[in-house]
Specification:
Elements: H1 7-29, H2 34-45, H3 51-58, H4 62-74, E1 78-82, E2 90-94, H5 96-116, H6 122-145
Antiparallel strand pairs: 1-2
Length: about 150
């Protein structure tokens, strides 16, 4: 068996390359990195959710999320509020600066990634995206089974 020809290796290589490209865009056009952007994106998509939710949504450790929340909060991209019912719980909201960053940078990401798939027939690309959705759903089911999430 040649590990570099396996599905798991190829998926890892694609994800790593996408992350590297994304990090380059953030280095060139913002004051944050890609993982920090994902924290802001989570607050944008899920306003008021907890750091614990963010860790699960992003599939990162709670400690990593806690650190990144502090960083992007200090830069003014998110607001953190204590939960009224449980003062140990912190809820995350995107600020106007965070919204502006999402709306400015996300199209750049999509454009640079979209260009990578420009040679794929649009119908096949739609099928590919549907297939990714099915794989993601299956992975989440498996992770729940193994109590990973």
């Amino acid at each position: 068996m040649d590990p570099s020809n396996t599905l798991s290796y190829k998926l890892h290589a694609v994800v790593y390359s996408i992350d590297a490209l994304s990090n380059r865009i953030f280095k060139d056009y913002s004051d944050i990195n890609f993982p920090q952007f994902l924290i802001i994106l989570c607050a944008y998509q899920n306003p008021g959710h907890t750091q614990k939710f963010s860790a699960s949504w992003l599939q990162l450790t709670e400690a990593t999320v806690s650190y990144m929340v502090k960083v992007v909060h200090k830069k003014g991209y998110i607001e953190v509020k204590l939960d009224e019912d449980d003062l140990r719980t912190r809820n995350i909201f995107v600020t106007d600066s965070g919204k502006e960053l999402i709306e400015r940078i996300y199209p750049m990401l999509e454009e640079s990634l979209g260009g990578l798939f420009g040679d794929i027939d649009p119908k096949k690309m739609a099928e590919f995206v549907q297939g990714l959705d099915l794989v993601y759903k299956s992975l989440n089911n498996k992770m729940e089974e193994y109590e990973c999430i």
